[in-house]
Amino acid sequence: QVQVVESGGGLVQAGGSLRLSCVASGSVVSINAMGWYRQAPGKQRELVAQITSGGSTNYADSVKGRFTISRDNAKNTVYLQMNSLKPEDTAVYYCNYNARTIFVGWRDYWGQGTQVTVSS
């Protein structure tokens, strides 16, 4: 069993910053890629940023230069630093882990989501 919990969402004015955190706990043996996705009302969930076990990163074009993803492997934690926020960044942000546990092979785990609202 793996629990994935996000934190750090909230309400911020346009141009402001937020830092999201996500931690995985439970019977985790190894974690491959970690990522952040978001879903705005009426839209499909989309990839925001991803970081591999080797530290390679990938960003959606809409957030390049504004968002930074990082990870702390010792803490099974992934972060998303969001700067220069825009109203169009408003969405529920979900954390995703590709992990292997003692009992289950590689699979994806999702957090419950954290709301980010950017006011104009």
Shape: elongated
Q: How much helix, percentage-wise, in residues?
A: under 10%
Mean of pLDDT: 96
Total number of β-strand segments? 11
What would the keywords be for this entry?
120 residues, elongated
Description:
The protein has strands spanning 2-7, 10-13, 18-26, 28-39, 46-51, 57-59, 67-72, 77-82, 91-101, 107-110, 114-119. The protein contains no helices and eleven strands. It has 120 residues and is an all-beta fold. Strands 2, 4, 5, 6, 9, 10 and 11 form a seven-stranded mixed sheet that branches. It has a four-stranded antiparallel sheet with strand order 1-3-8-7, with no helix packed on it. The protein is 0% helix and 61% strand. The protein is elongated. The model has no long low-confidence stretch (mean pLDDT 96).
Write the layout of secondary structure elements.
Layout: E1 2-7, E2 10-13, E3 18-26, E4 28-39, E5 46-51, E6 57-59, E7 67-72, E8 77-82, E9 91-101, E10 107-110, E11 114-119
Parallel strand pairs: 2-11
Antiparallel strand pairs: 1-3, 3-8, 4-5, 4-9, 5-6, 7-8, 9-10, 9-11
Quick summary of this structure?
This protein is mainly beta. It has strands at 2-7, 10-13, 18-26, 28-39, 46-51, 57-59, 67-72, 77-82, 91-101, 107-110, 114-119. It starts with a strand and ends with a strand.
